[in-house]
Amino acid sequence: MKSNEKRHEARAAGLDALDAITEVGVWDYAAARKCIADTALAEWRMGVAEPGSSPIANPKRIDEYIRGPLGLAWSWLEPYTKDEQFAWCGAKAGFCAGSAGVKHAIRFKYMASTFRMGKHLLPTRGVALDAIEPGDILVVTNGSKSYGEHICVAVEKPVNGLVVTVEGNARGILGNGRVGNGVIRRTRPLAPMPKHRRCPMSSLKQSHWVLYAIRFAPEDFDRGVEP
User: Fold this and answer.
1) Is 213 exposed, middle or buried (0-12, 13-18, 19+ CB in 10 A)?
2) Order of strands, sheet of 179-189, starting from the edge strand that comes earlier in the sequence
3) Cα(32)–Cα(26) distance, rounded to whole angstroms?
4) In tens digits, what is the pLDDT along the chain, a chain of 227 residues?
5) Computed from CA positions of residues 176, 195, 189, 86, in that sequence, does the dihedral angle turn out positive or negative?
């Protein structure tokens, strides 16, 4: 081996050791998970609603969740221009995950589908519902499908059997404070509720409850992305 190559290797090893000692550049798993929730809230505050349904309609942003590099990256699809063109709840959650550094392959393969998430992520990434934390991905159900119907991001820990979520392709409180369809904030119960019970934020019926929760593991993140 040439002497220059040896010097470069020794220098790299020395820098790695310095980082380990001083914690310079150490990747923060907790911050990465929190970034998923923070991104969800930022997108909600920005205001994103379905085309034609609200003054804050923003189909270009929805298209970014579906086709953009931080979302599903399903670039072959037609641009999103009309309501119900694509069931984009998982794309919105995927965008939040991608912004925090969750790897492209995970978002691309699994996050558009409650079925695929349940099959491929739940067995190794599932967490107890009473242990949900901000940044966890939730799948909710009304009982009609064994693998759930809708994908959300938890933005708070559960309190009194309810967890606060930010969701795409759903009805609830939009970023402008009105009830509508788009990126919304609301609560989801951890268990089925009586039909008369309603979300304290939106007053909408609590017809869906959390079926399972997924928490990304450290190896699911691209550590070159700063949370």
Assistant:
1) buried
2) 126-127, 209-214, 137-141, 150-154, 162-173, 179-189
3) 12
4) 444 454 445 444 433 433 443 344 578 999 999 999 999 999 999 999 999 888 999 999 999 999 999 999 999 999 999 999 999 999 999 999 999 999 999 999 999 999 999 999 999 999 999 999 999 999 999 999 999 999 999 999 999 999 999 999 999 999 999 999 999 999 999 999 998 999 999 999 999 999 999 999 999 999 865 55
5) negative
Q: Which residues lie below 8 Å from residue 68, measured CB to CB, with a gap of 6+?
A: 95
In b/e form, how buried is each residue of 39-76, taking b as 16+ CB within 10 angstroms? bbbebbeebbbbbeebebbbbebbbbbbbbebbbbbee
* pTM for the model: 0.87
H-type helices in the chain, by residue range?
3-22, 29-46, 59-67, 89-99, 104-110, 114-120, 122-125
